[in-house]
Write a structure and sequence with these properties.
heterodimer; A: alpha/beta; Rossmann fold; 5-stranded parallel β-sheet; 8 strands; B: mainly alpha; 2 domains; 17 helices
Chain lengths: 315, 483
C-alpha cells in the first residue's frame, strides 16, 4: 500500500515536471492549430503590453478608466489630461468584471485614483472571462491576483497558459519584446487610450444573441464595489455609446439598466443621453471612431463635473 | 458527481484512504463505508433520489429472502412479479410515462379521437436503468435458484449502489459482484496500478476523444438541413467516436476505480470498432447490457432454438427492447430495429459467430479483406448511430437523405476546421493505441509492460499531456447518464 502511494506521488511529481517541459517545447515548435488549450500572445490585442508597462510608471491619478475595448477605445486619456484630470485607462480586450477586479486589486495602491469609471457594456457580464485572462497573463505581471483570476475562470487553457507564462517570465523568454505604439491603424496614446484611425463604419450587422450574466461575473462586480467602497473611492458606471441599430436589437438593456441602478452607484447610459449617428461616429457596430470619442468624452466630462463626481489631484 | 470533475479528484483519494486505512480491518464497516461513499457520490447530483435507490434495495433484499423461504412455485412467481413490477414500474414511470402518453395521444388523434392529457415534469434519476437491471438480476437469479439470497443487508446495499458503476455500468450480475462484498479485500499493488492505467485510458477517451468529437457531431446534427453531405458523413463519424469514447471511457474509469478498491468488474467494451461483422460488434459493444438481455430475455424467449420465425421474432424483440432501454424515443427503437436487420442475416446463415478471435492476430496490420470488413461494419454502425443521435425520426431520415446528395463532393463546413482536423488526428492516435493494445481488456493493459519504467511512464506522461493540451474545456456529462 505504502509503495503504491509513494509511487503515485512520485508519478505525479515527475508528470508535473514532464508536463511543464513538454508545454514549453510544444509551444515553441507546434503551430497554433495543435495547441488549442494554450494561447500566450504578447502584444496581441489593444496594446495591452504597452499599457501594463506604462501603468507601472504611473502614480496618483484623478480618474481610472476600466473595462473592455469600449473603455480603451472610448476614454481618451489625452483629452482628460488636457482638461486637468490626470487619468489612466486600464481597459483591455473583452475585459470582464473578473479581470477588472484583479486589476483594481493590483494597481489601486499605486494609482490612488480619486474616481474609477467602469465601462459596463452588458455583454462583458455574460463572458466566461477566458480570453481576457489569457491576455492579462501574457501581457501583465503574474502575482496572487493572477492566480485568483485563473481560479475564477477555471479553464484548462488558462492553466496551461499560466504555467507557460510563469516559465516564460522566470526565464525571460520575451524580455526583449517591444510593442510598436502604432500598429496598422491603431495608435497607442499615453495613458492607455488606443485611437483607431478609421472613420467609416463598414461593419456588417450581426445577429443579436440572448445572453445571460454569469454568476461569477456578478460576484466579481460586487467585489469591485466593496473594494472601492472600503477605500472611499467613488465608482461611476458608464454605458458607452454603441450604434443605435445594435442598441435597439439587443434584449438585455432593460435588465442591465435595472441591475446597475440597484447598486445605487452613479450610472450613466450614454446611449440614452447622447445622440450619435451610426454611420458617422462609429467604425463598427459598437466601437466609437475618433469623432465619436470626442463627442462622447466631452459629454462625459460635462456629466462628471456637473455631478461633482471627479476632482483633480491639484485641487 | 462526474468522473471528470474536480469533486471526484478530491472524493476518490479520500474514499481510498478511508477504505484502506480506517476500515481495512472490519469488513462490515468497510462495506458500510462503501455504501456511504456511494450515496454521497450519487447524492452529489440530487440527494432526493437516494430514497429511490434505498427503496429498490429494500424491496429486492426482502424479496430475495422471501424467495428463499418460499417453496411454492405460485408464491415464488408472485414475489418475482412484485420485484419486476416495482423495479420496472419505477423505471417506466420516470423514463417512459411521457413517451407512452405522447404515443397514445398520437394514436388516438390518428384514429380521429383526439384527447388531452397532462404531461408530468419528471426528472429522470441518473443511472436508473443501470441499477434497476442490476437489482433485477439478483431477484431473477434467486428465483431461478442460481444464487443464494444474501442476509447481509449492508453488502447488498453496497452491491446495488457501488459508486464506480452505479450510474452507467457495467451492469453487474449479483453472482459476480455480490460475493466480492463478502470476502475480506487485501490491497493488491498490481491490481491497483492496473486500475490507474485503465482510469488514465478512460479519461483520455472521455475528455479528449468524446468531448472534442461532441462539438462537431452537435454541429452537424444542428445544421443538418443546410450543411454539405461531406460534413454530415463526418458528423456521423464524429458521433460514433463520441459515443464510444464517452461510454467505453466511463466503463474504463469505473472498472479501474473498482480495482483500486480490490473489486473486479466485468469488461464492457472490447474494441468494438475493430469488428469484422455485426455479430462481432454486438459481442464487443456494451457487453454487460447485451449479455443481460441474452440471459434474462433472449434465452427465456427460446433464443436461437425453434423455427426460423421464432429466431427472427426473438432477435427483433431483443434489439427493440435494447433500443427502448436507451431512451423513450422512437429513434432508439428504430436504431434497435436497424441493428436487428444487420444481425439477422448472419444469425439465419449461422455466421454470427464467425469472428471470435482477435482481428489480425499475431500480425501488425490487418489484411485488405479484414480492413474492408472492419470499414463496412463501422459504416453500418455509423448509419445506425444517426438514428440514435437524432432528436426525431424525421431528423434522422433527412440527415441520411442529405448524405446521399451531390454535396458529398463539397467542402466540409465545420466552424473550426483546424479543431476538426486535430480531432481527427486524435482519433488516429486513439485507433493506433487501441490497435496495438487489442489483445488486452483495454488498450493500455499490456502495452508497454515490458518497457523500462522510464519509457513506460514517459508514455503515460505524454497521454496526460495530450489530455491537457487537447481536452475540451467544458466539463461535459457522460451521455449514458441519461439512460
Amino acid at each position: 500500500m505504502l509503495r503504491f502511494i509513494k509511487n503515485t506521488v512520485f508519478f505525479i511529481i515527475l508528470c508535473g515536471v514532464f508536463y511543464i517541459v513538454a508545454l514549453v517545447i510544444w509551444n515553441k515548435f507546434m503551430s497554433s492549430k495543435l495547441k488549442p488549450n494554450m494561447l500566450y500572445y504578447i502584444g496581441a490585442y489593444g496594446h495591452a503590453h504597452t499599457r501594463f508597462q506604462e501603468v507601472k510608471q504611473t502614480k496618483d491619478i484623478d480618474i481610472l478608466f476600466i473595462g473592455s475595448s469600449h473603455a480603451y477605445r472610448g476614454f481618451d486619456t489625452e483629452f482628460f489630461n488636457q482638461a486637468g484630470y490626470q487619468s489612466f485607462n486600464l481597459g483591455t480586450s473583452s475585459q470582464s468584471p473578473i479581470q477588472s477586479e484583479a486589476l483594481l486589486k493590483r494597481y489601486l495602491d499605486t494609482l490612488k485614483p480619486k474616481a474609477v469609471v467602469f465601462e459596463v457594456f452588458p455583454e462583458v457580464f455574460c463572458l466566461d472571462g477566458i480570453e481576457s485572462t489569457l491576455d492579462l497573463i501574457a501581457n501583465d505581471q503574474l502575482d496572487q491576483f493572477t492566480f485568483e483570476m485563473a481560479s475564477k475562470t477555471w479553464n484548462t487553457k488558462v492553466f496551461n497558459t499560466l504555467i507557460y507564462g510563469s516559465i516564460a517570465k522566470t526565464f525571460g523568454f520575451y524580455s526583449d519584446f517591444k510593442e510598436p505604439r502604432v500598429k496598422d491603424i491603431d495608435e497607442y496614446v499615453t495613458g492607455g487610450y488606443v485611437r483607431k484611425n478609421k472613420f467609416e463604419n463598414t461593419a456588417s450587422p450581426t445577429q443579436a444573441e440572448t445572453l445571460i450574466a454569469h454568476e461569477k461575473q456578478l460576484h466579481a462586480f460586487e467585489s469591485m464595489i466593496s473594494i472601492l467602497q472600503s477605500r472611499n473611492i467613488p465608482l461611476i458606471l458608464v454605458y458607452a455609446p454603441i450604434t443605435e441599430n445594435f442598441y435597439n436589437k439587443v434584449s438585455y438593456n432593460l435588465n442591465f439598466d435595472s441591475l446597475y441602478k440597484q447598486t445605487a452607484l452613479p450610472y450613466f447610459n450614454f446611449n440614452q443621453l447622447l445622440e450619435l449617428v451610426d454611420s458617422l461616429h462609429f467604425y463598427d457596430e459598437h466601437h466609437l471612431n475618433p469623432n465619436g470619442v470626442q463627442i462622447f468624452n466631452n459629454a462625459l466630462l460635462d456629466t462628471l463635473t456637473q455631478n461633482q463626481l471627479i476632482v483633480s489631484h491639484g485641487s | 458527481m462526474l468522473f471528470n470533475s474536480l469533486e471526484f479528484v478530491v472524493f476518490l483519494p479520500l474514499v481510498f484512504l478511508g477504505y484502506w486505512f480506517v476500515f481495512k480491518n472490519n469488513l462490515k464497516l468497510q462495506n458500510a463505508f462503501v455504501v456511504c461513499a456511494s450515496y454521497v457520490f450519487y447524492g452529489w447530483w440530487d440527494w432526493r433520489f437516494l430514497g429511490l435507490i434505498l427503496f429498490s434495495t429494500l424491496v429486492d433484499y426482502s424479496i430475495g429472502l422471501s424467495l428463499d423461504k418460499t417453496p411454492e412455485e405460485k408464491k415464488r412467481k408472485l414475489l418475482l412479479g412484485i420485484s419486476l413490477g416495482v423495479n420496472l414500474g419505477l423505471l417506466g414511470f420516470f423514463k417512459y410515462y411521457n413517451f407512452f402518453l405522447d404515443s397514445f395521444i398520437s394514436a388516438f388523434t390518428f384514429f380521429g379521437s383526439p384527447f388531452k392529457a397532462e404531461h408530468l415534469q419528471v426528472v429522470l434519476p441518473v443511472g436508473i436503468s443501470f441499477y434497476t437491471f442490476q437489482t433485477l438480476s439478483y431477484s431473477i437469479d434467486i428465483y431461478r435458484k442460481k444464487l443464494d439470497p444474501t442476509k447481509d443487508f449492508v453488502a447488498f446495499a453496497a452491491f446495488v449502489s457501488f459508486f464506480p458503476q452505479l450510474v452507467a455500468g457495467p451492469i453487474e450480475r449479483a453472482s459476480h459482484l455480490l460475493p466480492q462484498f463478502y470476502q475480506k479485500r487485501t490491497f493488491n499493488y498490481a491490481l491497483a496500478v492496473d486500475g490507474m492505467r485503465q482510469i488514465l485510458w478512460g479519461l483520455f477517451k472521455k475528455v479528449v476523444i468524446a468531448d472534442n468529437c461532441a462539438q462537431f457531431a452537435n454541429e452537424a446534427f444542428m445544421s443538418y438541413q443546410d450543411t454539405s453531405a461531406s460534413t454530415l458523413v463526418l458528423g456521423g463519424i464524429f458521433f460514433a467516436f463520441q459515443i464510444y469514447g464517452d461510454f467505453s471511457g466511463y466503463s474504463d474509469i469505473a472498472i479501474g476505480t473498482s480495482r483500486l478498491f480490490g473489486f473486479d468488474l466485468m469488461q464492457n467494451f472490447n474494441f468494438p470498432y475493430f469488428s469484422r461483422d455485426m455479430g462481432e460488434f454486438w459481442r464487443r459493444w456494451h457487453i454487460s447490457l447485451n449479455t443481460w438481455f441474452r440471459d434474462y430475455l433472449y434465452i427465456p424467449l427460446g433464443g436461437s432454438r425453434g423455427s426460423k420465425a421464432t429466431v427472427v421474432k426473438n432477435t427483433f424483440i431483443i434489439f427493440i427492447v435494447s433500443g427502448f432501454w436507451h431512451g423513450a424515443n422512437w429513434t432508439f427503437i428504430v436504431w434497435g430495429l436497424l441493428n436487428a436487420l444487420y444481425f439477422l442475416p448472419l444469425l439465419l446463415r449461422k455466421k454470427n459467430r464467425n469472428n471470435l478471435d482477435v482481428v489480425a492476430e499475431n500480425k501488425r496490420f490487418p489484411s485488405l479483406k479484414e480492413l474492408a470488413q472492419m470499414l463496412g461494419t463501422f459504416g453500418l454502425t455509423v448509419l445506425a448511430w444517426i438514428f440514435f443521435r437524432a432528436e426525431s425520426l424525421q431528423q434522422a431520415l433527412i440527415y441520411i437523405k442529405r448524405i446521399f446528395s451531390k454535396s458529398i463532393i463539397e467542402h466540409i463546413q465545420f466552424s473550426s476546421g483546424s479543431r476538426a482536423t486535430s480531432t481527427l488526428m486524435l482519433i488516429g492516435v486513439l485507433l493506433l493505441i487501441e490497435w496495438n493494445g487489442r489483445y488486452g481488456k483495454y488498450a493500455l493493459e499490456k502495452m508497454g509492460l515490458h518497457w523500462k519504467r522510464s519509457y513506460r511512464w514517459s508514455f503515460y506522461f505524454f497521454i496526460i499531456f495530450l489530455m491537457g493540451m487537447f481536452m475540451a474545456t467544458d466539463e461535459t456529462p457522460f451521455i449514458y447518464f441519461q439512460f
